[in-house]
Design brief:
645 residues; alpha/beta; Rossmann fold; seven-stranded parallel sheet; 20 strands; 47% helix; 13% strand
């Protein structure tokens, strides 16, 4: 892998590397990255992997490699989004209320916790610490918002009285001096695709957890609009424009537009809009025009009062964001998908969303054309080859070149010719796995069960789960397609198998549940999506992974259904290109929870017979680790009993 990555960095060819769990893929790309003569960006999907790279893998590699580099260790830095760093202006001056007035500390218990976070931030300044969320004392999302700002609320380094000490700015400066920068997919998308300069100039990007890239880029390019958000922006702006010719009427107009939008939401109802309803189009135009007028009404000159200056900057930033989002939604381009999501009034009510129909075009035009990109993950070969993933990230199967890494490197002329003709050559290699899946794991498909229905788990599925869990004597990770299914299974098994500990997602924070799962040899942990991809429990803790059904996207998922429809219109197979690909990726990730070391043993049990009876089943099975397959429950029960003994 290291040789293939180094070759790609020299030739400028893109590279897809499937590297299974346990191969040491982070070293496979970090070694050539640290040796490359220009800056390399490493982008991860999760903060957990980012933390692992910066706190463990890179320091260990540096310690080992420095003697071989004549003491010249390459520099590295981590770069996160602004909201991941404490804001010293907010820490020292307070948080704006709905009227834009800076409030020092909230009352009650929360106020004491805010004071602890403020004290920690000041210690970070004194000690030269990163001031980032990962380094902070234990806190909730709500608490962190009391000491942080997002990009629209930031005053900017030149206007903030604490700009020189700013943790986010210090991190950017450190990154500018470093040869390797570790960041995340979202920040990479904002920098490369949206064109907002967030990362110092670089030559190559390594995208780890690359199976997550399209989802994270989509997420970064998704905008939301809610009535309470617009009303809050209007209230915050009121005092800052009250001296204008309209006496604050521009803020009132935005509040009125919010009411029009609320009425349109009630008239339209939730769901995707293939065509924009007239009442919604009119309300969005009102919000857009009122926000534009309000932006113009803000005074051009900065005031002498630092508090009002901060409040004005942040209020204007909110309104600019609302204007941009409303303008995008009102335009309703074919390249966007627009839908209304339901949310109860206590959490702010319904909200409008807009997301790109696809991101492969943007990735191709704005990232792959300009940079050399190495994609790596344990799950890049879906259906047995790279084509599905390659297409989703902007590479064409017809552009793939020979698999061999032993070919002579391209000459500069050949690289230049490649750039001129618009083709983007790429290679795909599977570096294998240290695991013997056929001996370490069984893939069991419960063919005798009825296909899953809309009503959730039936009696047959519950009976199957109980029999398998009982044979395993606990030690089970249950991956369910819905919270309702996970809760139903947990409740049933607590009655049937009272001697086992049944943990369910939502009963505690995930780290706490994972700890309890590891400590109790007879525990089961049942949950949904975050467990499919985010849990690493090697050893005897997990000897049975249960998957209740093939994780197809919901039929009413606005974005997935729109993408499926677009693929059908283009002459493709929307179900296979969108729904089956989504399911294959999640199945591979879920099944990957079982075998984490060379000594792990166990069973992946899929309770959905369609995995072996449906025509698309072969595509899904080819995406899974090559475990020994069976549909015989008695064989699996005996194997689990032997393991538990």
């Amino acid at each position: 892998m290291a040789e293939a990555v180094a070759r790609a960095m020299v030739t400028g060819e893109h590279l897809l590397v499937q590297a299974g769990t346990g191969t040491g893929k982070s070293l496979g790309y970090l070694v050539p990255s640290l040796l490359h003569d220009r800056r390399v960006v490493v982008a991860t999907a999760t903060l957990a992997l980012q933390h692992q790279l910066v706190e463990r893998d890179i320091p260990a590699l540096m310690k080992a490699a420095t003697p071989l580099l004549d003491g010249r260790a390459p520099s590295y830095a981590v770069l996160k989004g602004r909201s991941n760093y404490a804001c010293l202006h907010r820490v020292r001056e307070g948080v704006p209320d709905d009227q834009g007035t800076l409030v020092d500390v909230p009352e009650g218990t929360m106020g004491a916790d805010v004071l602890k976070l403020r004290a920690w931030a000041e210690e970070q300044v004194d000690q030269g610490g990163p001031g980032d969320r990962d380094s902070a004392p234990k806190h909730t999302d709500r608490l962190w918002r009391q000491v942080s700002v997002n990009h629209r609320e930031c005053l900017g380094a030149t206007r903030c009285p604490f700009g020189e000490e700013c943790f986010a700015e210090v991190a950017k400066e450190r990154a500018a001096r470093s040869r390797v920068i570790v960041t995340n997919h979202s920040l990479l998308a904002i920098d490369a695709i949206e064109g907002v300069p967030m990362i110092p100039e670089y030559d190559v990007v390594v995208i780890d957890e690359a199976h997550e890239l399209t989802a994270r880029v989509t997420q970064a390019a998704t905008d939301e609009l809610s009535v309470p958000e617009i009303e809050r922006a209007a209230r915050r702006s009121q005092k800052h424009v009250s001296g204008s010719s309209g006496g604050g009427s521009e803020a009132d107009d935005l509040a009125d537009a919010a009411q029009a939008l609320r009425t349109a939401f009630e008239d339209c109802g939730p769901g995707r809009f293939d065509t924009l309803p007239t009442e919604l189009a009119d309300a969005l135009a009102l919000v857009r025009d009122a926000a534009r007028a309000l932006i113009s009404a803000f005074p051009k000159e900065a005031g002498a009062d630092g508090e009002s200056d901060a409040g004005r900057t942040q209020a204007r930033g909110w309104v600019q964001e609302i204007f941009a989002t409303a303008e995008r939604m009102a335009a309703h381009h074919d390249s966007d998908v627009l839908w209304l999501s339901e949310r109860d009034r206590g959490r702010g009510g319904d909200y409008l969303c807009v997301a790109p129909l696809q991101v492969w075009g943007q990735l191709r035009d704005k990232l792959l054309t300009d940079k050399t990109v190495i994609f790596t993950s344990a799950t890049l070969m879906l259906g047995g080859d790279f084509n599905t993933v390659a297409t989703s990230i902007g590479l064409k199967p017809s552009e793939r070149v020979d698999h061999s890494i032993d070919e002579p490197a391209l000459t500069e002329a050949a690289v230049g010719e490649r750039e001129d003709d618009g083709r983007l050559p790429w290679r795909g290699i599977d570096v294998g796995s240290p695991f013997d899946y056929a001996k370490q794991g069984i893939l069991y498909v419960a063919r005798h069960l009825p296909p899953p229905g809309r009503d959730g788990l039936g009696t047959a599925q519950i009976d199957e789960i109980a029999a398998l869990v009982d044979a395993a004597d606990g030690r089970t990770l249950g991956l369910f397609s819905s919270r309702r299914g996970a809760d139903a299974a947990a409740e049933a098994l607590r009655e049937r198998l009272p001697h086992l500990t049944i943990l369910a997602q939502g009963e505690a924070q995930l780290p706490e549940l994972a700890r309890l799962f590891v400590e109790d040899p007879h525990a089961c942990l049942f949950g949904t999506l975050s467990l499919w991809q985010g849990l690493d429990v090697p050893g005897d803790t997990c000897q049975l992974v249960l998957i209740d059904r093939i994780p197809f996207p919901r039929p009413d998922d606005p974005l997935m259904s729109a993408r499926q429809k677009a693929a059908d219109r283009a002459g493709g197979n929307g179900f296979m290109q969108v729904a089956a690909t989504h399911a294959a990726l999640l199945l591979a990730q879920g099944a990957g929870r079982l075998i984490r070391t060379t000594t792990d043993r166990g069973v992946v049990a899929v309770l959905d017979p369609r995995l072996v009876t449906a025509r698309y089943g072969s595509f899904l099975r080819a995406s899974l680790p090559p475990m020994w397959p069976t549909t015989e429950r008695a064989v699996v029960v005996d194997a689990l009993k032997r393991l538990s003994a």
